[in-house]
Amino acid sequence: MKILNIIIIFLVVGLLFAGLGFWYFTTLLNPPDSASKAKEVNFEITSGQGVKEIGANLEKAGVIRSASAFEWYVWLEGVTAKIQAGTYQLNTSQKMATILDIITAGQALSRETEFQVLEGWSLEKIASYYGEKFSSDRNKDEATLAQEFIQAADTTDSRNIIPGDTFGFLVDKPKTAGLEGYLFPDTYRVYKDATPAQIIQKMLDNFDQKLDSEIRQKISAGGHTIFEIVTMASIVEKEARTDQDRKMVADIFWRRIQNGMPLQSDATVNYVTGKSELQPSIDDTKVDSPYNTYLYKGLPPGPICNPSLDSINAAVNPEPNDYVYYLNAPDGQTIFSKTFEEHKLNKAKYLN
Q1: Number of C-beta neighbours around residue 39 at 10 A
Q2: Where on the phi/psi map is residue 147: left (φ > 0), alpha (ψ -120 to 50), or beta?
Q3: Tens-place pLDDT, residues 34-69
């Protein structure tokens, strides 16, 4: 009888401890915070991490109550091998079961993002966008990131930032010129931790594809270098909006060069002054810079922006016309004229 009582006592105590243990264990599986106090956490699991390390990191991040409970739970569920590397968006009000479902189903945040460069953006604008785009994901401010991008693209030799990769279209680029003009405008998919060099490589690869053999043959047949075409295209990009107008403006500019006249492009003056005037002031046109095509004949030392394929095609395939002058109206129209008197009348009509 005594033995039976002892057995019963042991069973009761055992059940009590088991119940307490189960209650404690299930309590540890509950989230640290209520829904009203929940905090979002981006949690990264790297390849090769074990359950113990993952659990410790989850507890440290405040996502779970206990790393030990996490280890036991993963073992009980038999999903040790199913945990996937990646960056996950978790929050402190999720149950451990929910967290385990997320990290075993591979519901990771995308490591990629869109990097959209618009036609006619300058290197400085692209760099500024780079800073704005990624500053929140890195421990650097926008200005620092922008400067890193500018330094990378200012290189006179692409091999300095992309070792072992050469681009044939850069062969005729002056040794003193950077990569302004070749950063092809497009929408790119890039990793969120992409370096300036990695993004620039995508842009140069894209430029290489867009500048197909037909375009390159026409450039050669026209007696120009790719660098000259890109430089002209960058000016045309800023001077006209429609494809037809760009081709006509390109013809005017090529004829001015052929006739020994200055281009007198307002866009190049704006590039020097940093303004965006439809009609630069007389003082602006007197600012001494090799990029000021009011003062210096021929093409400027290099591109003033990164032109679209349409502007490149316009520079390669100018539309022959009898116009000598043009102006850009506030509504975006390009107004052409054949004589200086007609040009003055148009200026009075559209710009004054």
Answers
A1: 13
A2: alpha
A3: 877 788 888 889 888 999 999 999 999 999 988 988
Same domain assignment for residues 227 and 335: yes
**Domain residue limits at 53:** 28-105
d(CA 352, CA 160): 49
Question: CA–CA separation, 270 vs 249, rounded Å?
Answer: 17
119 domain-assigned = yes
Q: Which position has the token pair 């990624």?
A: 134
What is the rounded distance in angstroms from the CA atom of residue 194 to the CA atom of residue 174?
A: 28
**Whole-number percent of the chain with pLDDT over 70:** 93
Q: What's the predicted TM-score (pTM) here?
A: 0.75
What is the Cα–Cα distance from 215 to 188, expressed in whole angstroms?
A: 23
Radius of gyration of the chain (CA): 32
Q: What is the pLDDT of residues 283-307, one digit of tens each?
A: 999 999 999 999 999 999 999 999 9
pLDDT digits (tens, 9 = 90+) for 90-146: 889 898 888 989 998 877 777 789 999 999 999 999 999 999 999 887 878 999 999
Tally of structural domains, the chain:
3
Between the alpha carbon of residue 270 and those of residues 122, 276, 293, the distances in Å are 12, 6, 11
- What length is written for the chain? 352
3-class DSSP state of 114: strand
